[in-house]
Design brief:
Chain lengths: 411, 411
């Protein structure tokens, strides 16, 4: 595949390219304009940070049922979900740098924009890697990072053979198309494997793993600037339910050695993959050993906690990195914090009447995404900072329970 | 003056009025819309908080050279600086509640809007009081609050007689028209008094005070909801230079008894004046005794520090109060913090090339207002949180020095 060849050779060339296009603050007489592709909650929260910095921000979004178009002043509406190069090029040309709300953007389009002189961050190469789980896994393996046991499968026979070898159940992750639990399939037997294979054949190859016994899950955000400056955030602990992140606590209660190792891995990965902006690295702890589960080259759900808990939020640091500004301190500014995601339990839920009751909980910082309710959709999150993780988590859970119409934890 | 009679009688009536108009969250199926009159940095920072809460926000602004129009999606442009009732009414009708970026709005227009059924918060009565320093001083006196020594003067002869009685210099504060130092005149003798009197005759009567020896200045924000719930923020210490707030530190290093007293006074004032939203109360400490210097019924420059330092920022709590939501905790979430204002030293300063150098300072949270530089104009602020006020202040000063092109404090 020619994409594969394009992708990893030109780190030096990427650097040179970026240097030529990077924002020269010495010459600026007006604030630079950042373009953001995609209109979700990450774009919404990036906008809040852009406002503090005085940065102009321009949104490229398609669907109406998104978060950010409710608030951005400058919006280019894509004419369809399948963004076409002419309109996205017109948009990118108006911006000093372009970044992303999500990585579901064709790397080919991004590469074309790069060729036309647009500063796209993360780059097409980095996006390509994160958009394809099989490529990602193989690349990390080549680089020598510790990974869960896995195979890349192209046929049902290979999958079934792995099920027999490792023992059922096994886990199937299609290369593309999945996020928020929609890309992870636990199959119990040959017949389920057959059904998953046939329904996801468009997303071959698959990453196939044994069902692991995970001690804990954690995440570290690295942030890397166009200048090469790179910092890691403190490691957080995450709780995933049905493949979606439900809770984040900071600091994660991992042993010091694990935390230091995870931060070093995240920084190295950002550099090895030539990432610019936030690179979120999700880890599993398996039998006390750390393995890299997945990457995302953008602000990440496990980093929302940084808005209240850390000196510089992931959103501000993403902007600083992309704009070539010095990075801000990633240190915690509070003893402890917890974030709990608000996930729709059904379609057409109306949470608005529940807001007053929820905001009675002390210390609740509410972030709502202005998305319509759809079962299992993340529609907001709540962060609480406190003296202890336990207290922060209890208050954040209670607030989310009240927003969800559940109050079991109150009794 | 009939305004005077209108003003203070109808607290009960105000309450009843508000109750009738207040937002009923139980019945909402979409997020309420808040209207903000005035396009300055307070509107800009209110917008950032509105985004987190999912609130719709609609701006009414006139001049182009303002902060908030750069970011708001929904803007009604006033056709002139002197806002006319038809257009402002059209704007207010589209909003569930209307609040203010500044208090330089004709209370008569606001009262007219109230009569037409719009929920204006703060109310015309509260605005009227804050817009007129003589009325404000007299009202606080009637309510029994401790104030600096003062007289209300209508003639030059009265002023000169006070200068002779107290000894020159004395301080003249016109009733109306002043903010950020432009409303405080220190006159050294009869001739200067004469000149100030003649140039400000349109702003009679004047509040006239002896030149006080002030130990320290501080500020407490009270926040009061439409429901009557009221909280005070911890007291901060402020440093004024040329009548403008230059620095804010939190916690202020006042004796515990002073802090408790100041919080109690601020809460009582909010209730006595029937304020809704933030009420900023500026205090002087004179010979260890606390007196109320001035009020502002809106988010306040001395409260910007709450964005990083307190669990709920003044902007979010202002919105919660106006929308009838439970108030958020006002407690500090960090040990210490400092805010330093960025004030233009000349016209047409271009600070943009200095931003990278300024952001090298550890822990600097930058807030730029996107205003053109004009001598003595506040164009931004920097907040730093740290283990001690001294460290926070040193870093915030250094950042502002770098933005201003001064680096003396580095040497």
């Amino acid at each position: 595949m020619s994409i594969q060849q394009d992708k990893w050779t030109p780190a030096a060339e990427n650097h040179a390219n970026r240097a030529a296009k990077a924002i020269d603050w010495n010459r600026l007489t007006k604030f630079p304009t950042i373009g953001i592709i995609g209109g979700g909650q990450l774009a919404q929260m990036l906008y809040q940070s852009a406002i503090s910095l005085g940065i102009e921000a321009h949104l490229f979004a398609s669907a109406a049922d998104e978060s950010a178009p409710k608030y951005f002043r400058d919006i280019t509406r894509a004419s369809s979900e399948s963004w076409t190069p002419p309109e996205i090029y017109h948009f990118a040309q108006k911006c000093d740098a372009v970044t992303f709300d999500h990585e579901l953007v064709s790397p080919n389009i991004v590469r074309e924009l790069e060729k036309r002189g647009c500063l796209m961050l993360p780059t097409a190469s980095t996006l390509e890697l994160s958009a394809n789980k099989a490529n990602q896994r193989q690349r990390l393996d080549e680089l020598g990072y510790s990974l869960p046991p896995y195979n890349i499968c192209n046929t049902l026979a290979e999958i079934i053979s792995l099920g027999e070898h490792w023992g059922w159940p096994i886990v199937i992750k299609p290369s593309t198309g999945g996020y928020d639990g929609r890309g992870v399939f636990v199959v119990e037997n040959e017949s389920e494997a057959n059904s998953v294979f046939n329904s996801l054949i468009a997303h071959l190859p698959f990453v196939v793993e044994p069902k692991l016994i995970i001690d804990a899950e954690g995440s570290v955000l690295a942030v890397r600037s166009t200048t090469g400056e790179c910092l890691a955030y403190p490691m957080v602990k995450t709780l995933q339910v049905d493949g979606m992140c439900r809770e984040v606590t900071s600091p994660g209660d991992f042993p010091e050695a694990i935390t230091v190792e995870a931060q070093r891995v995240a920084e190295n990965l950002a550099s090895d993959l030539d990432a610019v902006g936030i690179l979120a690295v999700e880890f599993f702890s398996i039998g006390g050993k750390l393995v890299v589960n997945e990457l995302a080259p953008r602000p990440h759900n496990t980093g929302h906690i940084t808005i209240e808990a850390n000196i510089t939020s992931q959103f501000e640091n993403h902007l600083r990195a992309v704009l070539g500004l010095p990075l801000g301190s990633t240190a915690l500014r509070v003893p402890a914090a917890a974030t709990v995601n608000l996930i729709s339990s059904s379609n057409n839920q109306n949470i608005i009447p529940r807001i007053p009751h929820a905001l009675e909980i002390e210390g609740a910082s509410l972030h709502l995404y202005s998305k319509s309710s759809r079962k299992s959709r993340k529609i907001g999150h709540v962060t609480v900072t406190a003296d202890s993780v336990e207290k922060a988590l209890a208050h954040a859970r209670l607030t989310v329970d009240r927003l969800s119409g559940l109050e079991l934890s109150e009794g």
